[in-house]
Design a protein that fits this description.
Layout: H1 5-29, E1 45-53, E2 57-59, E3 65-67, E4 73-83, E5 89-92, E6 104-107, H2 112-144
Antiparallel strand pairs: 1-4, 2-3, 5-6
Length: 148
Amino acid sequence: MSLTNVFDIAGSGMSAQSVRMNTTASNLANAESASSSVDETYRARKPWFAVMKQEQLKLNEDNQFSDLDSNIGVGVQVLGIVEKDSPLQARFQPDHPMANEDGYVYYPNVNVVEEMTDMMSSSRSYQMNVEVMKTAKQMLTRTLTLGQ
């Protein structure tokens, strides 16, 4: 792996953490949104990450290409955004304008403490990827100045 691949890997990490922060912000913004039915209630969302793998080939004894190592990671990708399947919060509030005929109001399955923890974690991960890029840039710059 060359040093320039570090920029691609850190960039994919920054992009993934940005998606994670956006979904967390959406969850926090909708944490107290009320609904009169289960089907209309907002559900917490989480991004689904996966490792992007590099295909490396080598020539075998028959001069045919074969797989060398398919476990080499070259970044992270967001495969999708999934809804959490934890139960919604049903609160008995018969005076609420969104209450159903039984007097229940449904609130999202958003745990604010968990979302704030996710926000801090994704922010720190984003910062670490920025530091990786800064360090790689410094190493490349120092390499270029070696011949002077």
